[in-house]
Amino acid sequence: GVWGSEFLSVRNHLSQKMSDKEPNRLFNFWKSTYFGVMCIVVYIPFMIMENLLSELEMANGFDSLGFYLIGVLYLMQMISSVLAVSIRAKIGLKATFFVGGLNLVMVILCQMAPSKRALIDDLDQESAFVQFIMQKNVCITIVVIGAALSGFGEGMIFVAMGEYISLCATESTKGFYFGYWWALYMTSQIVGNYVGAKILLQ
């Protein structure tokens, strides 16, 4: 009767309020923690390399090239940050992380050419291909391309990082989650700079 319909009405109202209730503050907290730790693991070697870049290029006989490479890296990161939203819309979040990560390591891999060049005593004893790769202008081209790709990848990753953290958080906890993730990410900066300084002092 009337009481039955009233009871159903109240129950439905409470059920609706329960379903509309936001998840608790620690909703997906473990995911954001895992993500932050992975950022530390990925970015520590990148930060070490970034610190050593100018010194490494000087040791390889390229004078101040390392400073220009850092400039190229951050220029491409700036450009990529603008384009990354469109790229993410085309290929998806996971693929953006994957492609960005592959590009990110290029600045490290491309140092193999100038480092190898510095270790070779007599280029004439090497194969024609190695002689070509070891030419100074070719080495410069390789490391500039590597820095550009790395910067572009870093821009993609940063945009994807922001989206992933926002997906982990709720509307009222986005500020906390972004702050928490940033604190974890800064660990890579601290460790990377510390290790880089230790290497330079040796």
From TrEMBL:
Main location: membrane
Membrane topology classification: Multi-pass membrane protein
Compartments, record wording: Membrane
Residues annotated as transmembrane: 33-53, 65-85, 138-160, 180-201
Gene3D superfamilies per UniProt: MFS general substrate transporter like domains
UniProt entry keywords in alphabetical sequence: Membrane, Transmembrane, Transmembrane helix
InterPro entries: MFS_trans_sf, UNC-93-like_regulator
GO CC annotations on file: membrane
Protein name: Uncharacterized protein
Organism: Strombidium inclinatum
